[in-house]
Amino acid sequence: MTVNFEVNGIARSLTVDTRTTLLDALREHLQLTGTKKGCDHGQCGACTVIADGRRINACLSLAVMHEGRKVTTIEGLGTPDLLHPVQAAFIRHDGYQCGYCTPGQICSAIAVLQEIRAGIPSHATEDLMARPQATNMEMRERMSGNICRCGAYSNIAQAMAEVAGVKA
Amino acid sequence: MKFDRPAGHNPIDQLRVVGKPTDRIEGRLKTTGTAPYAYERHDVVPDQAYGFVVGSPVPKGHIERIDIRGAKASPGVIAVVTTLDMPRLEKGPMNAAYLFGGAEIQHYHQAIAIVVANSFEQARAAASLIRVNITGQSGQFDLSTQVADAPLAHGKIPPLDRVGDFDSAFATAPVTFDQTYTTPDQSHAMMEPHATIAAWEGGKVTLWTSNQMIAWARRDVATALKIPPENVRVDSPYIGGGFGGKLFLRADAVLAALGARAAGRPVKVALTHPFLMNNTTHRAATIQRIRIGATRDGKITAIAHESTSGNLAGGGPEAAVSQTRLLYAGANRLTSMRLAHLDLPEGSSMRAPGEAAGMMALEIAMDEAAEQLGMDPVQFRILNDTQVDPEKPDRQFSRRQLVKCLQLGATHFGWNRRNSRPAAVREGDWLIGMGVAAGFRNNLVTKSGARVRLGDGGLVTVETDMTDIGTGSYTIIAQTAAEMLGVELGQVKVSLGDSDSPVSAGSGGQWGANNATAGVYAACVKLRRTVARKLGLDPDMAIFAGGHVQAGGRHFGLADATRDGELVCEDAIEYGDLDKKYQQSTFAGHFVEVAVDAFTGEIRVRRMLAVCSAGRILNPKSARSQVIGAMTMGVGAALMEELAVDRSRGYFVNHDLAGYEVPVHADIPHQDVIFLDEVDPISSPMKAKGVGELGLCGVSAAVANAVYNATGVRVRSYPITLDKYLDHLPQVL
Q1: Which of B138, B176, B442, B463 is the most exposed place for a label (fewest CB within 10 A)?
Q2: pLDDT, tens digit, 9 for 90 and up, residues B42-51
Q3: Is beta strand B430-442 parallel, antiparallel or unpaired with respect to B585-597?
Q4: Active-site residue B570, yes or no?
Q5: Tell me, what's the ipTM?
Q6: What residue numbers bound the domain in which A70 lies?
Q7: In this complex, is the C-beta atom of A149 within 8 Å of any C-beta atom belonging to chain B?
């Protein structure tokens, strides 16, 4: 089956098996391997990408569901020579170790900061009538779908706080 | 280079690059998704087919028949290889379970077939069509029922070790303590599953894989495939987490090679995440009895630690008593390890094997004993510190600052604010508690080699089969070469994980940093002498700094030495008997504050501090990350991690990350780490030791002790989950 969608600003047309996940379409067909396959069933967050502005687990989504949509992967956020500010903050704060969950963490971090700016509440939001703030607990709660087994959480929190302009 | 005397002053001591908090040199690749992991290497060989591994549906039995007709006829299928196609493949010395071959099933999800197809979806679908007839056999799956009959475990560590007369000393001690603790089976649960791309060229095979120990992988692939080691190349530049789970060859590599041979084209294989729990290895559960006899003023006179774990035939025990032989003073000592036969998947190394589980028990016992004595647990540990190996008092520790770690930690953490009476501090709905534990892990030295090239423009390239599993090897190796050759960090390129490079220590047992950089040091010493001679300078006098070399008033650019071509030097660090003469270990003080909801029992970790004494810290930034990551794993072990055993069907039930819970962002607060300013000239020319496992050892007990201090409920069976303490919480109304 053919799917036409936009990946990192580039129009793509792929012929894929209907069983092909968005994750495998990116990694195996487009060879955009920055998006990682960890658990492959929605439990670890390593495959997080941004689809039409919202973060999703690419492993839980079939490629053919993305007809006409816009997908942003880690490769679309920055390059080694031109880093996104969140990528630079992860490097400065050592917000990673083995690096395998890192692209997912960064995609999530960028989306989380946007969600907070957009006023979307979370489980940790104490006052649902007030605008959520980028507090430590608010960000940690929203990042909790992205597992880092190396345990870089404390450093990721500092990287995100720096980008959000708040105290860690 | 032979290292058989304590290190004197050397170029590393300049600390121009080494010892500085340094961003990872591969950071731009990892954060942009451009660092290539095993399964992603589309560029290394064309025409890669997809393999999917089938695991045994039973834990023990004999395969009568495997029907592959449905799979063979499935669309896109190129080849099917089953375990009945060959006899058992020989295994390497560190594996207990067989990886493939033959009809006998030793554990659940043991690999029994691989399906190779043109696409991943086709391979997976065809794999589901394989039908297996197995005559099942009954097995042993419950450690608790095997304890009574478990024999002593013979292995590297003596199974029964006595010093003095424990029994008499314990019987006559004025204060005695005797408790039993359990730790569960735990999973490495690294983010990247085991994965390999295999390609044959005639009789030679290349494996692009994810493995911590390149030389072992090469050796064991050769053994399994019955080909000479020189016909095997292994390449593993990026590894998405290992924690010991990728120390030894696993089924992904063997089956990729077999699948590729059968398919006649390169094959890529990744184990599914559920296979991590039952197909690969885990940290084995333990049952540990600890007895402490002391004088009324708190001096330990007798200490015993006895542990039982289980494993498959050929597997070893979880060496949970190791630290108890070294950590505290006391004239009369007893340690023993027993090993039961279990038909669960193979128990093997997971981050700090032995000490991680052992400290989970020992450091609760120390907390309990201190309370029984009416002593502060920090003071009790300090009182029983030893500066010599308690079993061999003429053998000193090379460097041991446990007392300072505890004292400094207590000051920084505000330990004096702790109320020693449990369940006495309340903030609103929360019960607040603080806990402490010592941290302890040995420093192991082992031969490690490297090659250093000085090329055009003074560019330095380091090549070694050392791996970086997130530990920061790339960066500390670059720092070492930059320091030795007097160049900037950016002038150094580092190539890791390729079996064509000199054999290194590899990544395991927190030995990687010290040994691998010492190997680079050795190669750089050789290169410095070669450069000096090339430039006509006295090698003993030459000074390397700022991209220049000078001696006797003469001065050259480093690149001048390459005018006739690249200079290449290779060497290895090899150790004498300093690790026999001295006990080399690393130490920490772990401090934790928890809040426990007085109504629901929910435990929140609020503050964590580790103070570490671990020799020279080569890169304080990545070393700190190693420690906070280990502390995070320690929280997991304390509060949530447990592979649940199905005792009738014989497997780990919660074999994914939804059922096997590990800490997430919301569980982990800001963490503080302090490294004592320390060098250990006994360990290597780098004067460094390891920290990656030290950061884990003791943390879980500090959490457990904090929960006790908060609630007054002592849980001796990890993990500390609600079912074990909720109905014992203090009355709230």
Answers
A1: B138
A2: 999 999 999 9
A3: antiparallel
A4: no
A5: 0.98
A6: 2-76
A7: yes
